[in-house]
């Protein structure tokens, strides 16, 4: 039976060969570079002639004066993105589900989904223009109301929240489609029975709609735990500046500066290895919770 099944799926296995090849080439072979974390690595000497320093790079990493602040910034920003990334799409999906005009729904879906396809380079340029203190549209509106302008990209008080709001604006349209698809799986006769029993739209939403998509919400929420240390390198790198390092510097940007600007390759690799190990544990925990809470399995 197994031989027969293998022959039936032979074409699928052949199709996997290019993907497996590139995964090995770009994901597994580069893992040999982990040894740099335990060396005082000098590029022209290579892996074999660089001096071994044991755990000195890790000791240096933990003794860096701003390391723990960077860890806090990373977790704080990532958790805010995860939380808002669950709430906003759910609310948007519920609102769109109440609109009966299909043309309007599709138009709104297209508009909120479009930013997902734009790179942070483009969106970063837009944000820098509209959030400018002197000529930005947002600050002009705020000042028109008689309030002082805000330095969204240059103030430690504003910068983390600017990151979260702009990330949600870019990505919530994609998640909304997932929840809209989940809403279509709810049996409409349940709503009819609830309406006959006197339940208004709010009660129907509270007792039928939300429980009906609860398993999807739990699944996506649990799976997002693996991204706790991914606060969005590209977004932060484009928008931040030295004036907001205190609140906006994250692990990936610190790693970039240490590795590519300061050329401390051993310390940068140690930071990356530490992050990868923690992320692997979080991903394992998230899949275990997804299985226990939502019945989700990979295999």
Structure commentary:
With 299 residues, the protein is mostly helical. Helices cover 70% and strands 1% of the residues. The chain has 15 helices and two strands. The protein has helices spanning 2-8, 10-28, 46-49, 56-62, 67-98, 102-113, 120-130, 137-144, 159-183, 188-196, 201-223, 233-239, 245-248, 251-261, 265-294; strands at residues 39-40, 51-52. A two-stranded antiparallel ribbon has the order 1-2. Helix 6 (102-113) runs antiparallel to helix 9 (159-183) and helix 14 (251-261) runs antiparallel to helix 15.
Brief synopsis:
This protein has helices at residues 2-8, 10-28, 46-49, 56-62, 67-98, 102-113, 120-130, 137-144, 159-183, 188-196, 201-223, 233-239, 245-248, 251-261, 265-294, and strands at 39-40, 51-52. The chain is mainly α and 299 residues long.
């Amino acid at each position: 039976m197994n031989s027969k099944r293998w022959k039936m799926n032979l074409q699928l296995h052949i199709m996997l060969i290019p993907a497996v090849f590139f995964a090995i080439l770009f994901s597994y072979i580069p893992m040999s570079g982990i040894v740099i974390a335990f060396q005082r690595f000098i590029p022209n000497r290579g892996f074999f002639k660089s001096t071994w320093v044991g755990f000195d790079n890790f000791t240096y990493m933990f003794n860096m004066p701003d390391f723990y602040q960077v860890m806090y910034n990373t977790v704080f920003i990532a958790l805010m993105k995860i939380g808002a990334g669950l709430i906003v799409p759910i609310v948007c999906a519920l609102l769109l589900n109440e609109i009966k005009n299909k043309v309007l729904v599709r138009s709104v879906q297209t508009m909120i989904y479009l930013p997902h396809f734009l790179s942070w380079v483009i969106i970063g340029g837009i944000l820098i223009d509209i959030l400018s203190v002197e000529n930005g549209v947002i600050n002009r509106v705020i000042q028109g109301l008689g309030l002082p302008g805000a330095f969204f990209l240059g103030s430690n008080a504003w910068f983390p929240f600017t990151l979260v709001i702009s990330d949600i604006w870019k990505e919530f349209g994609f998640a909304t489609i997932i929840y809209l698809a989940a809403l279509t799986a709810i049996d409409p006769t349940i709503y009819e029975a609830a309406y006959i029993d006197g339940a208004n739209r709010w009660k129907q939403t509270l007792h039928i709609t939300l429980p009906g998509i609860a398993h999807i919400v739990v699944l996506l929420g649990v799976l997002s735990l693996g991204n706790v240390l991914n606060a969005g390198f590209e977004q932060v790198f484009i928008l931040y500046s030295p004036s907001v390092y205190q609140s906006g510097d994250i692990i990936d940007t610190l790693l970039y500066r240490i590795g590519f600007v300061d050329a401390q390759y051993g310390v940068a690799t140690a930071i990356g290895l530490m992050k990868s190990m923690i992320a692997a544990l979080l991903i394992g925990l998230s899949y275990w919770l997804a299985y226990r809470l939502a019945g989700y399995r990979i295999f």
